[in-house]
């Protein structure tokens, strides 16, 4: 998977990965591990993002890769 994401980033396509910060199965630690394995430059360390005057989660920006967490447990597919 890491090689696949590297190829997308090399093609100048921005990649976003989002995780629920309380999801125990597919949590933000996986995203952080992927970012480390990609070996890309950290542009902006982890910072909170705000929604309606409340912390909605955190965002960490790398070169071509953004890691986002949110105050949710999982992602639901929307058709």
UniProtKB/TrEMBL annotation:
Family label: Belongs to the peptidase S10 family.
GO biological process: proteolysis
Organism from which the protein derives: Meloidogyne incognita (Southern root-knot nematode worm)
Protein name, per record: Glucuronosyltransferase
GO MF, one annotated term: serine-type carboxypeptidase activity
